[in-house]
Amino acid sequence: MDDLDLILNSLLEEQPEYRQLIIPSEMVGKKQxxxxxxxxxxxxxxxxxxxxxxxxxxxxxxHEKGIVRxxxxxxxxxxNRLKLWQGDITRLKADAIVNAANSQMLGCFxxxxxxxxxxxxxxxxxxxxxxxxxxxxxxxxxEPTGSAKLTKAYNLPSNFVIHTVxxxxxxxxxxxxxxxxxxxxxxxxxxxxEINNLKSISFCCISTGEYRFPNQHAAEIAVRTxxxxxxxxxxxxxETVVFNVYKDIDYSIYSQILECGKE
Length: 263
Known about the structure:
Layout: H1 3-14, H2 27-40, H3 48-65, E1 68-69, E2 74-75, E3 82-86, E4 92-93, E5 96-101, H4 116-124, H5 126-139, E6 148-152, E7 160-165, H6 176-195, E8 200-203, H7 215-232, E9 240-245, H8 248-258
Parallel strand pairs: 1-4, 3-9, 5-7, 5-8, 8-9
Antiparallel strand pairs: 2-3, 6-7
Helix pairs in contact: 1-2, 1-3, 6-7, 7-8
């Protein structure tokens, strides 16, 4: 039995409601089933044998995707510490990548969901959910909007993941409170990176997409907050901030704000 079959059999065995599922014969189907079952799995202990097989498989998948180093990102002429990169954040080798989490901080439980929370937890492995669960059990209350937590990154190429909870836009219009909360997300992440002596951090587009914060407005707050942080903390140890985008619309917006690609 290879690692992927061992992983699938183990996940199906511990979740009785899914035992009737047939393991696909093709590799793509197997990987999708693995991710789905990992997404659904509650934060309960698992064997070292499973973790060894899972880590080996996730490292293989990372190698297939390819690791992206920070020097591959576009440099902004407005500040040589700011960079822009479009693509899958789970490929970035930064000291920390930022995850747009929800207040439960346990990752996305919807199988194969397209949110960044799902992507990061899926690529890191189930250890990430287990660590987040321990943090939340000690805290004993949901994570407040605008705050952040640091965890290990496990099978990601980054060293750490910083999880932050962005504001959810309910009625379409953005309030001043929600603007402040989004700015707080960026400040909290930067301060957490500073405290832990991290030199590079990559931000996702916090609160856009599922949380419905307008893309342009969110990007302006993101760049402004990071720039203000650098002005306020002139002796910061943070050397590189990458704004990671996935959608073309966000790439266009950040390219303009950061003046990337201009002569």
